[in-house]
Specification:
This protein is α/β, with parallel strands linked by helices. Helix content is 37%, strand content 14%. It contains nine helices and eight strands. Strand 1 (7-11), helix 1 and strand 2 form a beta-alpha-beta unit.
Length: 275
């Protein structure tokens, strides 16, 4: 993967999942990266101040930039994939937005992922979508205050998750824009998820690059590092760059082995300039 000059950030919540959260940024720096991203790094939506401080300090001490952060997404290990569309959990989500905005203010983070949430059988889909719009408007407003963007991500492997394609996420974004939000909600194009869900990744890049605020990659099958599967990731990234994408590319995969996790990417390419 050498045909493009996009900058790469390692996803510490997946690549370094075997390490304690507070050791992961340092591990990324040791591997040669200058930028990292995390899922929600706390057990609850409202971590104590000292927990937040310890996380911020771990990023600063490692000398890396936190370029992407998820909002609270429920119990991911139990199958939750966000609480944005979950009526009754508005306060949890919005509390986590306030925490994330504070972290972003302190560390310069400007991209925040709002996982939409699985469908709840006992509630009408319309009620869940209305809750999502309200929560997203609140998040967009809070994140706009620090000059950041909120992103929506289509996800694979979760049958009850309603955003499967780029079009699904873009439909929500369009509804938000019609409601008069600050206009800072974009698409998180995880090329792995889109491909596994059968989306036309070439068409997404060709027609929606201006809506893409963040890209993530993994190969398929397997969700491992590039080169372990058969996705044309290099071609897709080159096309995105040619179409005008200039953001970060998050490496969100499960390494096939610790020594092979980053073999495909030279140390020079890992040390992307942070600005």
């Amino acid at each position: 993967m050498t045909s493009h000059q996009l900058r790469f950030a390692v996803n510490c919540s997946l690549v370094f999942a075997d390490l304690p959260v507070l050791e992961r940024a340092a591990a990324a720096a040791t591997a040669g990266f200058t930028a990292v991203e995390f899922w929600w790094p706390f057990a609850t939506a409202t971590p104590a101040d000292d927990e937040v401080d310890a996380f911020v300090d771990s990023i600063s001490a490692a000398g890396v930039r936190l370029v992407g952060l998820n909002f609270f997404a429920g119990d991911m290990s139990a199958g939750d994939r966000g609480v944005v569309s979950w009526p009754g959990r508005e306060s949890e989500f919005r509390d986590s937005v306030a925490v994330a905005a504070d972290i972003g203010r302190r560390l310069g983070t400007r991209v925040f992922n709002a996982l939409y949430g699985n469908r709840i059988d006992a509630l009408p889909p319309q009620a869940q979508d209305e809750a999502a719009l309200d929560n997203l408007l609140a998040a967009a407003t809070a994140i706009d205050a620090i000059g950041g963007r909120v992103v929506l991500e289509p996800v694979s492997g979760c049958d009850r998750y309603p955003l499967r394609t780029a079009g699904d996420a873009l439909d929500v974004i369009t509804r938000l824009e019609r409601l008069g939000g600050p206009g800072n909600v974009g698409l998180l194009a995880d090329l792995y998820h889109l491909a596994v869900n059968g989306d036309d990744v070439d068409a997404v890049i060709a027609t929606a690059t201006d809506r893409i605020a963040h890209i993530q990659i993994a190969d398929a099958p397997g969700r491992q590092e590039p080169g372990t599967g058969d996705l044309p990731l290099d071609d897709w990234l080159a096309a995105a760059e040619k179409a005008g994408y200039g953001g970060w590319v998050g490496l969100e995969y499960k390494a096939s082995s610790a020594d092979r996790a980053f073999e495909w990417l030279s140390r020079a390419r890992r040390a992307a300039p942070v600005h």
